[in-house]
Amino acid sequence: MAGYFSNHSGSRFLANAHSSHGSQTTTATTPASSVLQKNPSPVPPRSRLPSSKFSSSVSSSGDEKSQSRERESHPLKNTWVFWFRQQRAPGNKITNYEEGIKKISSAGSVESFWGLWTHLHPPSALLPTTDYLLFHAGIRRPVWEDPLNITGGKWIVRLKKGVADRLWEDLVLAVIGEQFDDYGRTGSGNGAGGNGGEEWPEICGCTISVRQNEDIVSLWNRHDGDAKVKERIRETLRRILNLPPTTVIEYKSNNDSMQDKSSFRTTNPDRTPLAPS
After folding, report:
1. Which of 19, 22, 112, 246 is buried most, with the most CB atoms less than 10 Å from its CB?
2. Element (H, E) at 169
3. What CATH number is attached to the domain comprising 70?
4. How many angstroms separate the CA atoms of 9 and 78, rounded?
């Protein structure tokens, strides 16, 4: 398991050196529609089949609003929205970050989630500098500056190439399955969406960033200043992804990201081993 992580015990750069040797830079761009499989194989090209906790008997994908209410017999506690972002290819003109983000679809039920998930290409099939983003439907745009994101931050795990598909699926299922839900729900704050006293989960969403030499998963939370909540989220993340105690996990506030214009640069790694059970 230790070999999954690109920065396990400080070995990130060694891992990158191996994966980048002899590689060539990809210049092709990926349109948003290409992340959807038009004719998904009857046997999903995954490292495992979908969890038995969820139904996967859905015939098609599409936006949540276009799906029949009668078919949504197993509603999720919250509605979640999938987004996609293709960053600029080398040599191309830099594109505004938000302009590059495209909404794929939303899911408010078990059925609609699996209908979408089985049509998405796994991270291993995406070109480098591509992101998948899954965020709560109350978040207007999956960016640092959104009113529900701006006071929070993210836990970050860097992975070696070739192992992200299963860990990304585990994280997504944990988020939509509310495995972080016991960390409290708070009012909208900052007048987000004009919803007054509506409550929002502590977890905003999660992302995976496919890069040339590594893949990066991150879990976003709403409050950067609550150390106890952040620690509990970190330990739950370790458990869900089955991370070794020595795995380096980094945390970066969205305020810091806005200051240095980067999600992952100059983060503060957390090397605290898991507490004994």
Report:
1. 112
2. helix 164-176
3. 3.30.760.10
4. 37
Amino acid at position 266, single letter: T
- Residue 13's CB is within 10 A of a number of other CB atoms, namely 11
Total of domains in the chain: 1
Asked whether residue 47 is assigned to any structural domain, the reply reads: no
pTM of the model: 0.70
How far, in Å, CA of 153 to CA of 206, rounded? 11
257 within domain boundaries? yes
* Centroid of chain to Cα 99: 19
Counting DSSP H helices and E strands in the chain, the numbers are 5, 10
Length of the chain: 277
CA-based nearest residue to 181, from 198, 167, 202: 202
102-145 tens-digit pLDDT: 999 999 999 999 999 999 999 999 999 999 999 999 999 999 89
**Residue 195: C-alpha distances to residues 69, 102, 139, 148, 226 (Å):** 24, 25, 12, 12, 23
Q: Are strands 75-86 and 130-136 parallel, antiparallel or unpaired?
A: antiparallel
